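Budget justification aside, the reviewers requested a transparent look at the raw inputs and outputs of the sequence design task funded under Objective 1. We therefore reproduce one unedited record. The lines immediately below are the structure tokens for a 341-residue chain.
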């Protein structure tokens, strides 16, 4: 899925830094905090790690259920008597064949709905309603992991045909070509190694309940952008709570999901609190030269915990659906701290 802050393009840089610092990153226990869509979790899983991934956004965890949780396509024996299929291909074909419905997503996110928002074509909005309602019908039948897996597939497929430029802060006035294609649920590729546990909660609350890890990887928000506002539509698809939405673009109430890392007056105290709750051999933290926190402050706090080194690499800013062409002198930073015993 399209996601600001995604580390997919930086995995090689992160791995080079781990090698340089002589961090053993294979077959170890890793906590991935502020994990987003799981690019870094995926990297560690491919090196046969046990990963505990945490984010407070439901859509992010749904995406990780889609692509990271299962080692092979799950069987849906629970649904065979209902739909006549138990294999994943059959289940997806059944869902893709449902007749569209005029429901919550039709009314809120297409131009023929009550609020005239052009996030999805009329036919795709109807398909989202039909498929989401059917998956919800199965919630009490399926194990939660399979339910979340199907929700993640739907969310990812909807994102693929959304009429946006990369985030959901606004929809486009003119239809992009992809948004006019028919939405289709697709089977993901599966990772055969490692094991992952997924948590939807505040990262500090998560840490307080965990024992020591080998590596704790952090990728906190670095500017004033609040992720709930930029991915509100996807959150609505996943949570399916049918909130009354606000404004021209249909924002959810996200007061309880705001990150203090994106608020200047809170970020220093929040960062210190986070670091003080980490129990690990290594802290590995991604950040940016555009960040609210300055690198000198981060180094000061991490050096109190152990030997720390800072790496950086040039990085082009993500701007809606394209990468800026100009040299903005933007750098991605990686801090690695070997914690004192």
């Amino acid at each position: 899925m399209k996601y600001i802050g995604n580390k997919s393009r930086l995995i090689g840089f992160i791995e080079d830094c781990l090698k340089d610092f002589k961090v053993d990153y294979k077959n170890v226990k890793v906590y991935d905090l502020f994990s987003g869509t799981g690019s870094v979790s995926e990297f560690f899983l491919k090196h046969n790690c046990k990963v505990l991934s945490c984010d407070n956004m439901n859509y992010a965890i749904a995406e990780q259920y889609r692509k990271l949780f299962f080692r092979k396509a799950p069987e849906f024996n629970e649904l065979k008597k209902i739909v006549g299929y138990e294999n994943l291909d059959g289940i997806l074909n059944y869902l893709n064949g449902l007749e569209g419905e005029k429901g919550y997503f039709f009314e809120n996110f297409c131009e023929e709905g009550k609020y005239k928002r052009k996030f999805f074509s009329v036919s795709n909005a109807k398909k989202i309603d039909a498929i989401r309602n059917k998956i919800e019908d199965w919630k009490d039948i399926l194990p939660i992991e399979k339910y979340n897996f199907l929700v993640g597939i739907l969310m990812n497929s909807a994102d693929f045909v959304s009429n946006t430029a990369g985030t959901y802060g606004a929809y486009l006035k003119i239809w992009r070509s992809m948004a006019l294609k028919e939405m289709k649920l697709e089977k993901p590729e599966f990772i055969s190694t490692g094991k992952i546990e997924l948590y939807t909660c505040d990262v500090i609350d998560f840490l307080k309940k965990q024992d020591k890890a080998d590596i704790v990887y952090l990728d906190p928000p670095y500017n004033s952008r609040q992720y709930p506002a930029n991915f509100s539509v996807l959150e609505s698809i996943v949570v399916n709570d049918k909130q009354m939405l606000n404004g021209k673009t249909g924002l959810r109430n996200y007061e309880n999901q705001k990150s203090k890392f994106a608020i200047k007056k809170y970020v220093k105290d929040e960062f210190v609190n986070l670091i003080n709750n980490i129990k690990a051999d290594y802290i590995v933290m991604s950040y940016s030269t555009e960040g609210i926190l300055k690198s000198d402050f981060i180094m000061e706090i991490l050096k109190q915990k152990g030997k720390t080194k800072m790496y950086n690499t040039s990085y082009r800013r993500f701007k809606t659906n394209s990468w800026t062409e100009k040299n903005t002198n933007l750098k991605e930073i990686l801090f690695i701290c070997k914690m004192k015993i």
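The chain has two domains: 1-64+197-221+259-341, 73-189+227-252. Confidence is low (pLDDT under 50) at residues 320-327. Computational costs for records of this kind are itemized in the attached budget.
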